Amino acid sequence: MNQERVHTASPDFIAQANIKPDDYRRMYRESIENPDAFWTNVAKRLDWYRFPTDIRDVSYRPDDLHVRWYQDGRINASVNCLDRHLAARGDKTAIIWEGDDPSKSERISYRDLHARVCRLANALRNLGVKKGDFVVIYLPMIPEAAVAMLACARIGAPHCVVFGGFSPDSLGTRIADCSPKVIITADEGLRGGRPVALKANVDKALQRPDTHTVETVVVVRHTGNPVNMQSPRDRWYDTLVEGQPAVCEPEVMDAEDPLFILHTSGSTGKPKGVLHTTGGYLVHTSFTHEVIFDLKEDDVYWCTADVGWVTGHSYIVYGPLANGATTVIFEGVPNYPDFSRFWQVVDKHQVTIFYTAPTAIRALMREGEAPVAKTSRASLRLLGSVGEPINPEAWEWYHRVVGEGRCPIVDTWWQTENGGILISAIPGAIPQKPGSATLPFFGVEPAIVDNEGKVLEGVAEGNLVILSSWPGQFRTVYGDPKRYKDYFTTYPGTYFSGDGCRRDADGYYWITGRVDDVINVSGHRMGTAEVESALVAHPRVAEAAVVGFPHDIKGQGIYAYVTLNAGEQPSEELRRELVAWVRKEIGPIATPDHLQWAAAMPKTRSGKIMRRILRKIAENAPEQLGDTTTLADPSVVQTLVNERLVR
Ligand code: WTA
């Protein structure tokens, strides 16, 4: 593998870069040696009602765990994303929307976006939404998604965005977790020309008794296809905002007031509502967005993520808009109408900065260079990657074919819990090695520990922890402080990421993937436990174990082992039914790639499933099974090996 190849930005790029090589070293040192002074300075980039003086109040000690940034500051996120740009950037395009249908697009100026946000914020207040009330947002990638988030921020109502690809049940679980009064959705979404029944899914989710707090469902008319509207609960978005004033007094928030929760998967149990607060999150996302993407006033910036994930929150909505940038919202998919779509959109809107996931790069790479080559892409100057490790081959292809060797690539490592990027190249300042996220961002002190928690120095491989705090760090797991604490008790006194990592002789970090029971499928984080509980919810299933396995396009695929109830017979029909069942229970992203019947699971004598063995079988590495003598019944393994589905 070509891991040690170093790419340095061109002299032209470096000459115009915001951060030069010497700046990086100096600023990093300052951020570590004197964090309060450093982060006071950075906070000046935002407009505060009261500028903070209490910069950092953090303890990772399990008996006194707390993370607070800028706690005496007062601020409103929507004002920072909108109002403060009106004087100089009122006519500048804030959002370029590109529809799933290539004939549909729209440009929204900062002035117009401000008015739309204010109208919806007023409408939400009229519906009784007050500071501190949750609002669930379940929308496709349309401008209203950003409008809804900012309208919530304006009135101090924390939002909880649910990815539009999630099933009614996954949506219901998230609604039940935060008890909103209002849900904002659309009649339907559109992806690759196919409708997604969002409103119908909401109707199903609201049949659950634990979602009874919802009083109003606001429905955006998007595809215009007929949907069931239940009076008085369901209200059309357009009639609701019609006639509302285009100004709305913002709520003055404490820096530590919640801005949103966003659910993500852990290794056990149901999804965790990761809670982010206002001041620190906005400082961190806007600052990283400017520095890591080398942002300039006339850039057209496009992040292809969905607002249902943290990348969409931080790097489609809050970071870019706080910076007064032009941000693209894309409703579609990379292969519709054809595999040139991304690059056609780049040409159409003259995109200069493009940020996507390795899984998309690999899928496009498989189609060859022709779909890329027939587009210009001359506007591009910087590329980014996020969500999973990028293999060096995909990195080189992205660099050579998409960027024609001209564009630096920032491989950005971070997590829902982190709020924003923690390890990444800064283009122009940090040379890149394909496959490495390179060096820590300002204020971030990564460390690698062994399984006993010993900090390893120099060249090392182990578990990635962070010793320091950063402003965009999550503040709790909503309603579950115990699960928050877990992050800081595995290796006491540090934040444990759940990722494995290696550090090379240049101090560069190479993320090797999750070391817990979380898998990363096409850049989507998933708990194997969630897929297992969906499977065992099927009446004919007795037991299920789910592991990840290496997948050429998705990074990791989903491999399920299923034991049926006594008396049930495996069949191809039942296999298909179970795969479809998981899809329906969680959503299409959780569809198992392989489902293997297991007459019995490999278990320890105390009854614990030995996943290490199941992982090796799924990886088609039966020679690496290791010690199986602790199994209650070692013969189980041979049957599973013989019947394995990947060879
Ligand atoms: C993985 C997405 C390698 C990692 C922003 C992490 C990465 C999980 C990278 C978080 C990267 C994200 N290189 N791995 N550049 N970025 N990951 O919460 O395993 O959806 O723990 O946040 O994605 O996924 P999440």
UniProtKB/TrEMBL annotation:
Pfam family, one: AMP-binding_C
Residues the record lists as binding CoA: 191-194, 311, 335, 522, 583
N6-acetyllysine: modified positions: 608
Chain ranges of the AMP-binding enzyme C-terminal domain: 530-608
Residue sites binding Mg(2+) per the record: 536, 538, 541
Domain AMP-dependent synthetase/ligase per the UniProt entry, residue ranges: 83-467
Coiled coil regions, renumbered to chain: none
Modifications the protein undergoes after translation, according to the UniProt entry: Acetylated. Deacetylation by the SIR2-homolog deacetylase activates the enzyme.
Family: Belongs to the ATP-dependent AMP-binding enzyme family.
Role, per record: Catalyzes the conversion of acetate into acetyl-CoA (AcCoA), an essential intermediate at the junction of anabolic and catabolic pathways. AcsA undergoes a two-step reaction. In the first half reaction, AcsA combines acetate with ATP to form acetyl-adenylate (AcAMP) intermediate. In the second half reaction, it can then transfer the acetyl group from AcAMP to the sulfhydryl group of CoA, forming the product AcCoA.
NCBIfam families per record: Ac_CoA_lig_AcsA, PRK00174.1
Protein name as catalogued: Acetyl-coenzyme A synthetase
Source species taxonomy: Bacteria, Pseudomonadati, Pseudomonadota, Gammaproteobacteria, Lysobacterales
